[in-house]
Amino acid sequence: MLQQRHRSAARHAAPDATVTAAPATAQGGPVTQGGPVALLLGAAAPHRHPGEAAANSTLLETWSSGVRTWVLDRAELLAARGPEARILSDEATGLDSVHADACVAWAREREAAGHRFDLVLGLREDVQLAAAVLAAALHLPGNHPDAVRRVQDTGARLAALAAGGFLVDEDPDRAPEGTALTAVGAFVSGRPHVFLLATPTEDGWSPVTEDGWSPVTERGRSPQDAAAEAAAAVLHLGLCFGVFRVDLRATDRGIAVSDVRLTLEAPGLQAHLARTLPCVELFNLVYDDALGRTTALPAPPLAPATQPPTAPAVPPFVLLAGEPEGAAAEPHICRGTD
């Protein structure tokens, strides 16, 4: 069935980062009434900063999913945001979101004042542990803090993968071998799904694209093999929530795991995802999963995506009501719904 999700067409910019949202009042009630609320840690990027487009894209996906946002980040970063980020976020509080204890204390104060939070998501690598601790403290879906520590500790990550029988890049002084690959995916119901396998164009064997990435063509091993190895790696490390990025190398000895990240931070990667797979919004999948919404999972199209999907592969589209000015021209504001 088709479902259209609405947000108010008249959106005002969120308050400056240095001002914490006001507590509930007898007249107006909690600020967070009116739908599910996501706490987004590390969602601010200064205007014209390289990370601004990715941050705004994530906020737009949240907005399109009908989820209200409360951004926690350093006051100076929030104050330096551009107008798009201010419009697309509902509330913002200046708080150094790398400090888990401070985030938990703040969230509990907000809950005591009548606010409700429905999910927590970290959008930078440096806030992932705080996001995991905060989600656990609020009894919300998230990765276990120990799993985040394991992933972010290079030695612990490589040791855990090697012990699980994975081929790993464990010598930083040795020149890397093989072809660099990156798998991008999201967890749904605790299971990892890889939606994109790409390679940086500097490797030279893929055609150059404007975002610095190219879809992977078969070279000895199929894209499905690499995707399966990436999915197995994040499961083995104990991850179960959010988006992920796994850097791999296709070598003569097999597929080696180079790195595992809990964000999509890589120059041009989100733009490549939006360009090649406009039907897939990874953060919306995460939000729907955390909120218990039933969604139609897009089939992972790991074959080269040099042409737009054929008509049968494209889910039904609805245009979001009340989209920000100019957003109608952006393909990623249209969601395929079940």
Unreliable residue stretches: 1-32, 203-209, 303-338
What is the strand tally?
Answer: 12
Question: How big a fraction of the residues is strand?
Answer: 15-25%
Which range best describes the helical content: under 10%, 10-25%, 25-40%, 40-55%, 55-70% or over 70%? 25-40%
The string of secondary-structure elements, in order, is EHEHHEHEHHHEEEEHEEHHEE
Q: What's the overall average pLDDT, rounded?
A: 76
Distance linking N and C termini:
6 Å
Q: Which class do the helix and strand fractions yield?
A: alpha/beta
Strand order of the largest sheet: 5-10-9-6-7-8
**Tally of contiguous helical segments:** 10
Net shape? globular
Q: How is the main sheet built?
A: 6 strands, mixed
Radius of gyration: 20 Å
Architecture overview:
With 338 residues, this protein is an alpha/beta fold. Helices cover 28% and strands 19% of the residues. It is built from ten helices and twelve strands. A hairpin with a 2-residue loop joins strand 9 and strand 10 (254-261). The radius of gyration is 20 Å and the shape is globular.
Task: Throw out a few tags for this protein.
alpha/beta, 10 helices, 338 residues, 28% helix, globular, 12 strands, disordered C terminus, 4-stranded parallel β-sheet, disordered N terminus
Summarize the structure.
With 338 residues, this protein is of the alpha/beta class. Helices cover 28% and strands 19% of the residues.
